[in-house]
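Field reference: sequence -> structure
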Amino acid sequence: MSYNSFLNKPENALRRAEELLTISQPSAALALLHEILSSRRHKTWSPTYEKIIILYLDLCLQLGRSREAKDGLHQYRNLSQSQAPGSLEAVIRHLIEASEKKCREAKEAADKGESPKPEEKGEGEEATADDDDADFYEGSHLLLSTMSTDPEKAQRDTAVLLPALKFLWEVYRAVLDILKSNSKLERLYHGAAVAALRFCGEYKRRVEFRRLCDMMRMHLGNLSKFGGVGTVTFDAGRNNKVRSLDCPWLGRMDR
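Structure field:
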């Protein structure tokens, strides 16, 4: 089947990706779906694209590909933001819930002393690590080693829990960035922000907490200057209500 047939009929791409999964080729399936989502050819949203992005994000979560997840989410935002905002919201909620579930499962596995499951790596994944990646893993390793007097447990936490923590953190960052100027989905932004703050508190992510506060402060500043999607002016007193982040435990993060 030709590549053009995948672009003209996304149903064909979805069917082919599912076939690749049946023969244990998740990376090939992910690459195919990424090509469909990132194609510059004009696309009109349809429910099939929602199925494609959900399968794509599930594969990113399975393989630990946070960069690909972020890129795919941005591509789907461009496709669905004006045509199907409800679909964008459903996809984002699915990704957050699935990532949080995997993080809880990883924590339970680490507490039980289970070994990490083998995950397929993308080509060049290790070589493309950025400064944020290095800071995340280095800071996490030091934090876990000081929190536990058992070196083996600290090592298990590093191998089992950290990849899930990093993926979830990247999901929160990507979602907040995508929703930062979308007034139609401000409730979803608020929910993601609260969830990210709770993540920082629960897992004692002090560095990420500071970055998160800086990010949201920048978003609010830009919104007050330029407004958002579907918003002509920003009026905190009348047109928009600034929602409070009711997280009473946040004061403990700076201690």
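Note: The chain has a mean pLDDT of 78.
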